[in-house]
């Protein structure tokens, strides 16, 4: 037969079991540690030559020089060139000197869109050696 519980037994049964709550906390901790290790920042690797001097290439050398002004005007051979005519000019100059690289001398305030358009036109003309140079600061 069963005995009736007394006053002393009621106090023993009133304790809260924390084991399930600790299990949940540890599972959440493990989840956050595992997911945090998979987060990677996306970066672009840039290959910079070791012995690079800050002198721009010589424009008088055998290279195809394209200048981009601060207002995104494009100049070749001392004349303004439309963005649609860049490829034809580069092809003509490349036919005269097949070993010539394309050097884009861009102003610091020029947009990247102009450089990308020039680089694309050079690649369409068959020249893959395209360099970007900043003009000398005015004194």
Word description of this protein:
- It is a single chain.
- 35% of the residues lie in helices and 14% in strands.
- The chain contains four helices and five strands, in the order ααβββαβαβ.
- The chain is rod-shaped, with a radius of gyration of 35 Å.
- It is of the alpha/beta class and 139 residues long.
- A five-stranded mixed beta sheet has the order 3-2-1-4-5, with helices on one face.
- Helix 3 (86-96) packs across helix 4.
In short:
Strands 3-2-1-4-5 form a five-stranded mixed beta sheet, with helices on one face. It has 139 residues and is an alpha/beta fold.
Features:
139 residues, alpha/beta, Nucleotidyltransferase, domain 5, 5 strands, 35% helix, rod-shaped
Give the helices and strands, then pairings.
Blueprint: H1 7-12, H2 19-37, E1 64-68, E2 74-76, E3 79-81, H3 86-96, E4 102-106, H4 112-124, E5 130-133
Parallel strand pairs: 1-4, 4-5
Antiparallel strand pairs: 1-2, 2-3
What is the tally of helical segments? 4
Shape call: rod-shaped
Oligomer: single chain
Q: Which strand-content bin applies to the residues? A: 5-15%
Helix content: 25-40%
Could you give a short account of the major beta sheet? 5 strands, mixed
CATH names the topology of the domain at 64-133 as Nucleotidyltransferase, domain 5
